[in-house]
Inverse folding.
Protein backbone atom coordinates (compact mmCIF):
# COMPACT_ATOMS: atom_id res chain seq x y z
CA UNK A 1 0.00 0.00 0.00
CA UNK A 2 1.39 3.44 -0.95
CA UNK A 3 2.29 6.11 1.59
CA UNK A 4 -0.60 8.35 0.53
CA UNK A 5 -3.12 5.51 0.52
CA UNK A 6 -2.01 4.24 3.94
CA UNK A 7 -2.79 7.48 5.77
CA UNK A 8 -5.90 8.22 3.73
CA UNK A 9 -7.23 4.70 4.44
CA UNK A 10 -6.43 4.99 8.16
CA UNK A 11 -8.30 8.26 8.47
CA UNK A 12 -11.28 7.43 6.27
CA UNK A 13 -11.83 4.01 7.84
CA UNK A 14 -11.87 5.51 11.32
CA UNK A 15 -14.36 8.23 10.37
CA UNK A 16 -16.88 5.91 8.77
CA UNK A 17 -16.48 2.94 11.14
CA UNK A 18 -16.68 4.95 14.34
CA UNK A 19 -19.79 6.85 13.29
CA UNK A 20 -18.75 10.05 15.05
CA UNK A 21 -15.84 12.48 15.13
CA UNK A 22 -15.21 11.95 18.84
CA UNK A 23 -14.40 8.25 18.39
CA UNK A 24 -12.51 8.52 15.09
CA UNK A 25 -8.87 7.64 14.42
CA UNK A 26 -8.29 4.75 16.80
CA UNK A 27 -4.66 4.18 17.81
CA UNK A 28 -2.99 1.64 15.48
CA UNK A 29 -0.40 0.72 18.11
CA UNK A 30 2.56 2.92 17.22
CA UNK A 31 5.46 2.77 19.68
CA UNK A 32 6.12 5.69 21.99
CA UNK A 33 8.50 8.28 20.54
CA UNK A 34 11.97 8.06 22.09
CA UNK A 35 15.17 10.09 22.20
CA UNK A 36 17.14 9.57 19.01
CA UNK A 37 19.00 11.40 16.25
CA UNK A 38 17.02 13.31 13.65
CA UNK A 39 18.46 11.00 10.98
CA UNK A 40 16.93 7.98 12.72
CA UNK A 41 13.62 9.79 13.14
CA UNK A 42 13.61 10.41 9.38
CA UNK A 43 14.21 6.71 8.75
CA UNK A 44 11.89 5.30 11.40
CA UNK A 45 8.84 7.56 10.96
CA UNK A 46 8.49 7.22 7.19
CA UNK A 47 4.96 5.95 6.56
CA UNK A 48 4.14 3.23 5.99
CA UNK A 49 5.06 1.48 8.21
CA UNK A 50 6.72 4.04 10.50
CA UNK A 51 5.40 6.44 13.07
CA UNK A 52 5.55 7.02 16.81
CA UNK A 53 3.16 8.35 19.42
CA UNK A 54 3.10 10.90 22.23
CA UNK A 55 -0.25 10.56 23.98
CA UNK A 56 -3.05 10.90 21.43
CA UNK A 57 -0.78 12.40 18.75
CA UNK A 58 0.89 10.16 16.15
CA UNK A 59 4.00 11.57 14.43
CA UNK A 60 5.04 10.67 10.90
CA UNK A 61 7.43 11.60 8.10
CA UNK A 62 10.16 13.69 9.69
CA UNK A 63 12.16 15.38 6.94
CA UNK A 64 15.25 17.59 7.01
CA UNK A 65 16.19 20.45 4.70
CA UNK A 66 19.73 21.81 5.21
CA UNK A 67 19.68 25.38 3.87
CA UNK A 68 23.02 26.98 4.79
CA UNK A 69 26.02 25.52 6.69
CA UNK A 70 23.59 23.14 8.35
CA UNK A 71 24.68 20.31 10.66
CA UNK A 72 24.14 16.71 9.66
CA UNK A 73 20.78 15.28 10.63
CA UNK A 74 22.66 12.68 12.66
CA UNK A 75 24.10 15.50 14.84
CA UNK A 76 20.68 16.86 15.88
CA UNK A 77 19.06 15.10 18.82
CA UNK A 78 15.28 14.74 18.98
CA UNK A 79 13.83 14.27 22.46
CA UNK A 80 10.12 13.72 23.13
CA UNK A 81 8.50 15.90 25.80
CA UNK A 82 5.07 15.91 27.39
CA UNK A 83 3.70 18.15 24.62
CA UNK A 84 5.95 17.48 21.61
CA UNK A 85 9.70 17.51 20.97
CA UNK A 86 12.94 19.20 21.91
CA UNK A 87 15.62 19.66 19.23
CA UNK A 88 19.32 20.44 19.71
CA UNK A 89 21.99 21.35 20.50
CA UNK A 90 23.13 23.35 17.47
CA UNK A 91 25.94 25.94 17.14
CA UNK A 92 26.97 28.35 14.37
CA UNK A 93 30.67 29.17 14.21
CA UNK A 94 31.83 32.77 14.52
CA UNK A 95 31.07 34.67 11.33
CA UNK A 96 28.84 31.89 10.06
CA UNK A 97 25.10 31.71 9.50
CA UNK A 98 23.45 28.32 9.90
CA UNK A 99 19.94 27.62 8.67
CA UNK A 100 17.88 24.48 8.24
CA UNK A 101 14.29 23.25 8.34
CA UNK A 102 12.74 20.27 10.13
CA UNK A 103 9.27 19.14 9.02
CA UNK A 104 6.94 16.49 10.42
CA UNK A 105 3.31 15.39 10.28
CA UNK A 106 0.86 14.81 13.14
CA UNK A 107 -2.33 12.75 13.12
CA UNK A 108 -4.71 13.33 16.04
CA UNK A 109 -5.76 10.02 17.58
CA UNK A 110 -8.62 10.10 18.64
CA UNK A 111 -10.13 13.51 18.00
CA UNK A 112 -9.72 16.34 20.49
CA UNK A 113 -8.35 19.26 18.50
CA UNK A 114 -4.95 20.93 18.43
CA UNK A 115 -5.83 24.48 19.35
CA UNK A 116 -2.35 25.97 19.61
CA UNK A 117 1.38 25.45 19.99
CA UNK A 118 4.37 26.80 21.86
CA UNK A 119 8.12 27.26 21.41
CA UNK A 120 10.96 27.93 23.86
CA UNK A 121 14.70 28.57 23.40
CA UNK A 122 17.85 28.34 25.53
CA UNK A 123 20.35 30.32 23.44
CA UNK A 124 23.48 32.36 22.85
CA UNK A 125 24.44 34.62 19.93
CA UNK A 126 21.63 35.30 17.46
CA UNK A 127 18.86 32.75 16.91
CA UNK A 128 15.52 33.00 15.15
CA UNK A 129 13.09 30.09 14.91
CA UNK A 130 9.95 30.20 12.77
CA UNK A 131 7.33 27.48 13.10
CA UNK A 132 4.69 27.11 10.38
CA UNK A 133 1.48 25.16 10.93
CA UNK A 134 -0.78 23.76 8.23
CA UNK A 135 -3.88 22.48 10.02
CA UNK A 136 -5.86 19.76 8.21
CA UNK A 137 -4.08 20.69 4.95
CA UNK A 138 -0.65 19.67 3.59
CA UNK A 139 2.48 21.83 3.83
CA UNK A 140 4.62 22.59 0.75
CA UNK A 141 8.31 23.07 1.44
CA UNK A 142 8.95 24.55 -2.00
CA UNK A 143 6.76 27.59 -1.25
CA UNK A 144 6.69 27.64 2.55
CA UNK A 145 2.88 27.66 2.37
CA UNK A 146 0.03 25.23 2.83
CA UNK A 147 -1.45 23.44 -0.18
CA UNK A 148 -2.98 25.82 -2.69
CA UNK A 149 -0.90 28.78 -1.51
CA UNK A 150 -2.80 29.08 1.78
CA UNK A 151 -0.75 31.01 4.34
CA UNK A 152 0.28 28.87 7.33
CA UNK A 153 -0.30 30.01 10.88
CA UNK A 154 3.08 31.14 12.23
CA UNK A 155 4.82 31.20 15.61
CA UNK A 156 8.29 32.72 16.18
CA UNK A 157 10.83 32.86 18.99
CA UNK A 158 14.31 34.37 19.03
CA UNK A 159 16.98 36.30 20.84
CA UNK A 160 16.51 40.01 21.67
CA UNK A 161 18.35 41.17 18.54
CA UNK A 162 15.64 39.52 16.41
CA UNK A 163 12.90 41.40 18.25
CA UNK A 164 11.33 38.13 19.40
CA UNK A 165 10.68 36.49 22.77
CA UNK A 166 12.63 33.43 23.92
CA UNK A 167 9.33 31.62 24.49
CA UNK A 168 5.95 32.20 22.91
CA UNK A 169 2.69 30.47 22.06
CA UNK A 170 -0.08 30.68 19.49
CA UNK A 171 -3.83 30.05 19.52
CA UNK A 172 -4.90 28.93 16.08
CA UNK A 173 -7.53 30.75 14.08
CA UNK A 174 -8.33 27.38 12.50
CA UNK A 175 -7.57 24.53 14.96
CA UNK A 176 -6.42 21.16 13.63
CA UNK A 177 -9.16 18.55 13.93
CA UNK A 178 -7.58 15.62 12.07
CA UNK A 179 -3.95 16.34 11.26
CA UNK A 180 -1.25 18.96 11.28
CA UNK A 181 1.87 19.45 9.20
CA UNK A 182 4.62 21.37 10.95
CA UNK A 183 7.69 23.12 9.53
CA UNK A 184 10.33 24.60 11.85
CA UNK A 185 12.95 26.89 10.29
CA UNK A 186 16.11 27.60 12.32
CA UNK A 187 18.54 30.47 11.65
CA UNK A 188 21.66 30.97 13.81
CA UNK A 189 24.47 33.51 13.49
CA UNK A 190 27.12 35.10 15.70
CA UNK A 191 26.96 38.45 17.45
CA UNK A 192 30.45 39.90 17.91
CA UNK A 193 32.50 37.14 19.49
CA UNK A 194 29.48 35.12 20.62
CA UNK A 195 28.55 32.22 18.35
CA UNK A 196 24.90 31.59 17.61
CA UNK A 197 23.76 28.50 19.49
CA UNK A 198 20.93 26.86 21.36
CA UNK A 199 20.91 23.97 23.80
CA UNK A 200 17.37 23.04 22.98
CA UNK A 201 14.29 24.23 21.12
CA UNK A 202 11.08 22.90 22.62
CA UNK A 203 8.12 22.67 20.24
CA UNK A 204 4.81 21.72 21.83
CA UNK A 205 1.21 21.11 20.82
CA UNK A 206 -1.75 22.39 22.83
CA UNK A 207 -4.56 19.84 22.63
CA UNK A 208 -8.04 20.51 23.97
CA UNK A 209 -11.73 20.20 23.18
CA UNK A 210 -13.87 17.89 21.10
CA UNK A 211 -14.89 18.78 17.52
CA UNK A 212 -18.57 19.35 16.88
CA UNK A 213 -20.36 16.75 14.70
CA UNK A 214 -20.97 19.52 12.17
CA UNK A 215 -17.24 19.44 11.43
CA UNK A 216 -17.60 16.08 9.65
CA UNK A 217 -18.07 17.58 6.17
CA UNK A 218 -14.99 19.74 6.56
CA UNK A 219 -13.09 16.74 7.89
CA UNK A 220 -13.72 14.75 4.72
CA UNK A 221 -12.59 17.65 2.53
CA UNK A 222 -9.42 17.90 4.59
CA UNK A 223 -8.71 14.19 4.10
CA UNK A 224 -8.98 14.57 0.33
CA UNK A 225 -6.54 17.49 0.42
CA UNK A 226 -4.13 15.55 2.62
CA UNK A 227 -4.09 12.66 0.19
CA UNK A 228 -2.93 14.96 -2.61
CA UNK A 229 -0.45 16.68 -0.34
CA UNK A 230 1.39 13.49 0.60
CA UNK A 231 2.12 12.95 -3.09
CA UNK A 232 3.55 16.46 -3.36
CA UNK A 233 5.69 15.95 -0.24
CA UNK A 234 7.07 12.72 -1.66
CA UNK A 235 7.95 14.42 -4.95
CA UNK A 236 9.72 17.33 -3.23
CA UNK A 237 11.86 14.94 -1.17
CA UNK A 238 13.53 13.56 -4.32
Amino acid sequence: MGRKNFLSFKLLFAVFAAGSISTALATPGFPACGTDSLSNYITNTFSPPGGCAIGILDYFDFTYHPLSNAPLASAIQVTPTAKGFSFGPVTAALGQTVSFEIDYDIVIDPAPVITGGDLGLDVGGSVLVTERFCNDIPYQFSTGTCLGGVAPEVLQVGTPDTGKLLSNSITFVHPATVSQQVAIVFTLSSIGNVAGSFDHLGAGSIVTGIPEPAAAAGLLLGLVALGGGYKLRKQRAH
Observations:
- Residues 37 and 194 are 26 Å apart (CA to CA).
- The longest strand covers residues 57-68.
- Residues 1-27, 212-226, 229-238 have pLDDT under 50 and may be disordered.
- The chain has one domain: 3-236.
